[in-house]
Amino acid sequence: MRSALYRIQFMNNGKNYQLYVRELVQSSLFGFIEIADFVFDGHSTLLVDPSTEKLKTEFSGVNRSVIQLQAVIRIDSMTEKGAARISGLGDNVTAFPFLSGKKP
Question: What is the CA radius of gyration of the chain?
């Protein structure tokens, strides 16, 4: 039996991060999700994608990452792994409004 594979896209520092993970769960911290067991391409290809290499470096040594729900753009359950990457957000993605300290 194959273990689950998820593609998660989220906003971080004005960029769109797309990662592949095997574990995705609701965090014990309210309003957050946890991702773990990161899946990156091996070095089997001759061409190296700089954004994939940047992600490998950024997440090297990370066992688990906690992401705020408002930062999540999309989560897909996948059958095949693709390339992890970082890209610009573009004009059609806006952060969910958050007003700290204001009560309705």
Answer: 15
Per 3-state DSSP, the chain is made up of helix, strand and coil in percentages (nearest 5) of 10, 40, 45
Give residues with Cβ within 8 angstroms of 84, minimum separation 6: 18, 19, 20, 38, 39, 40, 41, 51, 52, 55, 56
pLDDT in tens, 42-73: 655 556 667 778 888 888 889 999 999 999 99
From 12, 41, 42, 8, select the one nearest 22 (Cα to Cα): 8
Give residue 67's Cα distance to chain centre: 8
For residue 58, which phi and psi values (nearest 5 degrees)? -65, -35
